[in-house]
Amino acid sequence: MEAGVPIPGGRRLGLANRAARSAAVASQYQDAAEAAGYVAAHDGWGPTARYFHSRLHVVQELLKDCPGGDLLDAGCGPGMLVRRLLDTRAEKFHITACDRSPAMIEAVVDRTFDATNVELVVASIEDMPFGDASFDVVVAMGVLEYTDLPRALRELSRVVRPGGLMLVTMLNPASPYRLFEWGVYWPALRLLGRLERRLGVPAANRHGARVSGIRAVGAKTLRRMLHQVGMQPEDVVYYDLTPLVPPLDRLARRWARQWRDHPERTASRGTRRWMGTGYLVAARRPLV
């Protein structure tokens, strides 16, 4: 799914952990090759592609009832959502795409060269150069895990108009997949890589997982934090439902391919939500 392993630490990070996390986040997707690799991860039939496909489906479904207006894609990455909206609802939205990585914004340029209703901005989600109440819809997809979460949520809520909609996604730290991936699988790969280094295995052939800076919170915590910044949570949807853990999921995806034709089967608000490796919260700014 998302590359790398989460930074260790509890609710409050120490200075060393904060510095390591900031460096890990800043180092990602800073050149065109890394951005291209992120785009390529959306293709194929593996678990990463399934995760991205499921997440995009859920976001798009929740935007169906939105009449349109000014939309901000905060932490837009290479513009996968932007391109999808241009292909399906170009006449409804004026889109602003914002990302801290210039390489990602360049990738959006390549993906939206034919669009006249898209503006691109290089900026951090934690300090955006937009006025208060600038957007009818704000989407933060796959970015909050890399931020100072309270600060990022304050910024996102600040730019939402009264009555406006906010859609935010988060990796689900309580899912069986994430618990095993972060607590067993990635640490095992890193341990194996250290052993291979001692045995003289060339660096290019070693196992491992870089520290990504990911820090995720559960849906109850995220909803509470949204309340604290003046937003009213209305809906929670879990996506990328899977009972499997890595690397078993990679083997299973070679045969289970119906998710591309039926992405609705990969999401749930009901009893199957415990299997979701990620979730989305829809919230609205009150009119008064």
From TrEMBL:
Alphabetized InterPro entries for the sequence: Methyltransf_11 (IPR013216), Methyltransf_Superfamily (IPR050508), SAM-dependent_MTases_sf (IPR029063)
Alphabetical GO biological process terms: methylation
One function term, GO molecular function aspect: S-adenosylmethionine-dependent methyltransferase activity
Domain Methyltransferase type: 72-167
Keywords from the UniProt entry: Methyltransferase, Transferase
Record has Transferase as a keyword: yes
Organism superkingdom: Bacteria
Protein name as catalogued: Methyltransferase type 11
